[in-house]
Prior knowledge:
The complex is a heterodimer.
Chain A: E1 13-14, H1 26-34, H2 45-54, H3 63-73, H4 79-85, H5 95-117, E2 122-131, E3 134-141, H6 151-156, E4 160-161, H7 177-189, E5 193-199, E6 205-213, E7 218-227, E8 233-242, H8 252-262, E9 267-271, E10 282-284, H9 307-316, H10 322-329, H11 335-347, H12 363-375, H13 391-401, E11 406-411, E12 415-417, E13 420-430, E14 441-446, E15 449-450, H14 459-466, E16 486-494, H15 511-563, H16 567-583
Chain B: H1 7-40, E1 46-50, E2 57-60, E3 65-68, E4 72-76, H2 82-100, E5 105-106, H3 107-113, H4 125-140, E6 151-152, E7 159-162, E8 164-169, E9 176-180, E10 189-190, E11 199-202, E12 206-210, H5 213-221, H6 224-228, E13 230-234, H7 241-254, E14 258-261, H8 266-278, H9 284-290, E15 295-299, H10 302-307, E16 313-314, H11 317-329, H12 331-335, H13 337-349, E17 351-352, H14 365-376
Parallel strand pairs in B: 5-6, 12-13, 12-14, 14-15
Antiparallel strand pairs in B: 1-4, 2-3, 7-10, 7-13, 8-9, 8-11, 16-17
The complex binds adenosine-5'-diphosphate and magnesium ion (MG).
Amino acid sequence: xxxxxxxxxxxxxxxxxxxxxxxxxxxxxxxxxxxxxxxxxxxxxxxxxxxxxxxxxxxxxxxxxxxxxxxxxxxxxxxxxxxxxxxxxxxxxxxxxxxxxxxxxxxxxxxxxxxxxxxxxxxxxxxxxxxxxxxxxxxxxxxxxxxxxxxxxxxxxxxxxxxxxxxxxxxxxxxxxxxxxxxxxxxxxxxxxxxxxxxxxxxxxxxxxxxxxxxxxxxxxxxxxxxxxxxxxxxxxxxxxxxxxxxxxxxxxxxxxxxxxxxxxxxxxxxxxxxxxxxxxxxxxxxxxxxxxxxxxxxxxxxxxxxxxxxxxxxxxxxxxxxxxxxxxxxxxxxxxxxxxxxxxxxxxxxxxxxxxxxxxxxxxxxxxxxxxxxxxxxxxxxxxxxxxxxxxxxxxxxxxxxxxxxxxxxxxxxxxxxxxxxxxxxxxxxxxxxxxxxxxxxxxxxxxxxxxxxxxxxxxxxxxxxxxxxxxxxxxxxxxxxxxxxxxxxxxxxxxxxxxxxxxxxxxxxxxxxxxxxxxxxxxxxxxxxxxxxxxxxxxxxxxxxxxxxxxxxxxxxxxxxxxxxxxxxxxxxxxxxxxxxxxxx
Amino acid sequence: xxxxxxxxxxxxxxxxxxxxxxxxxxxxxxxxxxxxxxxxxxxxxxxxxxxxxxxxxxxxxxxxxxxxxxxxxxxxxxxxxxxxxxxxxxxxxxxxxxxxxxxxxxxxxxxxxxxxxxxxxxxxxxxxxxxxxxxxxxxxxxxxxxxxxxxxxxxxxxxxxxxxxxxxxxxxxxxxxxxxxxxxxxxxxxxxxxxxxxxxxxxxxxxxxxxxxxxxxxxxxxxxxxxxxxxxxxxxxxxxxxxxxxxxxxxxxxxxxxxxxxxxxxxxxxxxxxxxxxxxxxxxxxxxxxxxxxxxxxxxxxxxxxxxxxxxxxxxxxxxxxxxxxxxxxxxxxxxxxxxxxxxxxxxxxxxxxxxxxxxxxxxxxxxxxxxxxxxxxxxxxx
Lengths: 587, 383
Ligand SMILES: Nc1ncnc2c1ncn2[C@@H]1O[C@H](COP(=O)(O)OP(=O)(O)O)[C@@H](O)[C@H]1O
Ligand SMILES: [Mg+2]
């Protein structure tokens, strides 16, 4: 069976957040939120200035008063307060997107938890429509459950999770997903997050109502009671929120359909809202009983660490010497690397010995050290931290979910961008009943999580558009996705997927990533071209037969009419000609 | 009035028609036989069509028209060509049947006939038109034209008036019908779609081929044909195949010249007159039947604009382009110095004049002054 499920509890921690937001810029921030832009402090300055000017310039001698009155308003802003006002940063820009994002966060967590516990996931997703624009979504998993004490913090505190502090491939990362969804629900409907969780058959199931105190970013437990629950272990989350139920590319249906392609080991059951398809239950049975390889946790690679993080690591380390600091906190650092590094820093004018205590290194020196790290050769990071879907399973999943004539997949060997290992895989389904003259369907995944928005900004789209598909016998107009009866699934597996924004919707254009996607697409494209040629040849053969069958009798008739042949003569002519043409290979 | 046709003449007409039909059937059979023999020898039959493209066209000074060259397109019977091959043969069979039953079919008729052919039927008329054009080209090599294959154009020919008797054959009874073209009152005889079976009797001295219906009407109503002893033919723009073939056969059988009377503009000169006289470049395979190399250009000439002080319009962009193109690329105009001079003069003046511009001097000026004047000096006509 499963491992003792509750083992994750000690890993669930508060995530540090250094982004304090000063009150003075608060108004301007809200302006940014209204227009739905990514909020950068600089963005709204002109607007803020205008607003101030409207009040009239402050008179000389009044500055001190103004400063005093401002001081009375200046105070710390909690992360939850910040995100409550800038919810678009987390994918809650509009009601339709909010509902999908909420489902997505809960499903991601369910799959992550099962994977970590080595359990084959069975996830139930139910969406109930309570009013025109009010929904209740319930996601239930058979995962390891959450220990009693942790539940309030997980669902009632932003930046609280188990995944941030480890370098390990997972769907969630910052500990911000489900609690943000709960906060959105609370803000739009006033309803708490309802949780049932059970951390093993020998423990009791607990029922919670949790709300987040947005001002303080602290959980508040309204209900905490033991309940009867038929599941031996698992978690059920229910969030009531304001939303819109949509069909099409950005729908929950579409999202789940994509989830099961990239997660062939998961069974997903979906109950859409009543009224839409009353009482309907869509069951996606798992394609394989083979759980994905559990990704290893790794230490950061020196080439992938930014200066700020490096400084913090220096301060926080318990290592007594630079050498042990480098060797213990990073991967791929041995004696040789330390030696090279110190030579490099020396040629940059900084003398350090392997035994220098980390605490003695000043900020300026740390900067020299950090840039020297970037310049020296270090072995690429180990790649057993990655858990791709795999070619076989990807093909199997596509075969089960997409009706097509031809399936193939290519999983590239691991590669590295800026010290972060990653791996690209592409699955392709072609032909069958799909419409032929429309653009292909592109499924984008980051660590098996479907990316639904910002298609145009994504490296996967860019690589697909830029590939010359005509070489693979697929039509394509300039600067567009190819037009063919085809589904293309692209997944990037990485400990740290570089997204273009916080809402995690598009993969950034790193040349190494683009290159790997291109290679995987080419591999699939070549196989597709072979398939298409074979198909065309077969079709030609078939056409040849039917042509001969269809038209040669008419040559017989015409010759009979013109030359007055007998029926026998006509038949003989038709037979001879049929034979002559069947034998000739030339079309 | 023309004298009556003698019995022998009538018999001759019948005999000639029968002779021509027999040759047509023989050629169709020869083609089919060749195909059949190839098949019996287990080799792939082919059909050789003259290439219908401008690259395979020359202007023959000797004959005076555009001629198709020697390039042949060979269509071998393969899987890819089996459909068109079958359709071509069935279309030839249809032609044979039409000849034997003394009937005819328009392009549209032939298309509908194919609906009885099962899998070999045409999906739309452009397909059957192409096959018909192919067959026409195939037999043009043997001096058999489309009308002789009994495929007739959908559009009929222009109007005819004057001292002419046309003998036509009644399709139903085979009886010869006599048509007197002086007796249509203010109307006119209309040229049938196929003119192969016609024979003529006339004492007229020339044929006047007129561009516009308006001018034809004026000359016909005032019986100009009587005064000038001629036959008037209205072309209404670029003459149809039937009109061109009619003029050609009439002028050959009566041994009388043809004078063209058109607007003085690049369209009248290089489209209407040139097509009448030497045919068109992209239908060179049929020019041998349809052009009228003996035609001459009466007017309106660029010089007439000056001589008769005609009211004019400025040349349009397309006119200028057309005239320059004729000077530069058209083998007919390049062949004739007088035409180059005339076109250059027109371009230099930068104007054009319609034939009806003569009405400036009075409605009947054209009959009373212009045409009689011009006809006094036939040698001065442009070639
Ligand atoms: N269904 C679940 N089963 C077990 N643990 C869960 C579940 N959902 C969330 N968690 C725990 O709660 C933490 C916070 O979740 P979340 O706010 O979505 O952030 P993240 O997924 O980015 O870590 C996770 O890191 C995980 O440890
Ligand atoms: Mg999460």
